[in-house]
Amino acid sequence: MIALVDCNNFYASCERVFDPSLNGKPVVVLSNNDGCVIARSNEAKALGIPMGAPAFKYKQLVEAEGVKVFSTNFALYGDMSHRVMNILSDYARDIEVYSIDEAFLELESGSPESLLEQIREIHRIVKKHTGIPVSIGVAQTKTLAKVATHLAKKDLTTRGCKVLTDQYEIKTILDRLPVSEIWGIGRRTTKKLAMWGVESAGDLTRLDDDFILRELTVVGLRTKKELMGEPSVVFEGTSKPRKAICTARSFGSMIRDYEYIEQAVATHCAACAVKLRKQHSFASSMMVFVHTNYFRKDLPQYKRNIVVEFPATQNSIELIRQAKEALRKIYKPGYDYKKAGVILMDFQQAEALQEDMFTDNTLDDKDNRLVEALDLVNEKYGRNTLKIADEGLKNKHALKQTRRSNSYTTRWNDILEIKSGSDRRHSDD
DNA sequence: TCTGGGGTCCTAGGACCC
DNA sequence: TCTGGGGTCCTAGGACCC
Length: 429
Known about the structure:
Elements: E1 2-7, H1 10-17, E2 27-30, E3 37-40, H2 42-46, H3 59-65, E4 68-70, H4 74-90, E5 94-99, E6 102-106, H5 112-130, E7 134-139, H6 142-154, E8 161-163, H7 167-176, H8 187-195, H9 201-205, H10 209-227, E9 245-255, H11 258-278, E10 281-292, E11 303-313, H12 316-330, E12 337-349, H13 366-381
Parallel strand pairs: 2-4, 7-8
Antiparallel strand pairs: 1-6, 1-7, 2-3, 5-6, 9-12, 10-11, 10-12
The structure holds a DNA duplex.
């Protein structure tokens, strides 16, 4: 049996854990540069603020309704996510972390009643130990588990937990569910399906296999099978290493100077390298890209990317050297740049590393020991305690983040102070 | 004035090989 | 006039997810 655990309004919920006065109030969290809305509490949804809405378009509503607004605080959300996932892994045979706020669990099969009891317990423990509310759905396949979680969230009578195993119930639910709600059916496919008169998930299950294969490829066919209870999207289990690692950011304001763009690229490259080492991989190619602001139709536009190859490495210093060389080839002066990024690709795992006789990529040369020390220090004393000089200190490319909450769980200076008496913020724990 | 970031998978077509 | 067949690898582009 597969369960899908989904944290409710995750980022907004994280903010609430550390400031309970936000409970019952509309809360939104903004993307980088405070650009658009990426998380909303139920109260904010009720006010009609859509997902992905540009923040500036809702300024008036936000002020009028007293909506609490936060810049992203990924250090906090990442840490809270870890805590939730740790608890989940105690309650499952295996876990597949699907995103920062979602995980598939493999549960022992059992009667619907015992399954419900199990997920209610998980629901209760996660809330008690982390403060994060979750929705849990259980079914035979991942796609149906997604449907079940959807119900757990929408249907208040489920109190956040739904077991969807009864064949008759599945059928009636699928007949009422719009195809666009199904996991794996996006905007494009919904439009296509509508042309053939396919409106509900049930309609999709009644479509001919060959027809689906021809029009929607194997991806569409897998979805149909999953809806019919036949597992076709494999449960991956404990996370596999990433095949590509990307770090890219829009700049807080547009940048012209080569020097600052180079610093941004070096910074992104260093961030990629940390992620790369965390999963014990070595990269042997990277893409570097830059582009101007698409939204400024009045300004000249330029975008370019370049892929460079090199002997597999996980060393920040070498990777930054490559990134700088790549940037030099694509940078064109005279443009106002808005975004730059680095993508590392073509990984080899440490164990399988093909030794190149002429390059030393083992962990005992001097640069590598330096990088290892750098990781240790930054792990212990916080991100960016030590940086590579190429990353620069001025941070001209810095994000605009005017409303970031404290990093309660990951920075010593930001730890919550508990006061006694009327100022107490936590009633239990 | 102001519009995110990080991923995965699939397909078609071209290059190349025997 | 006729112009193989089967395979692999790579890339770009499309679609989708959270």
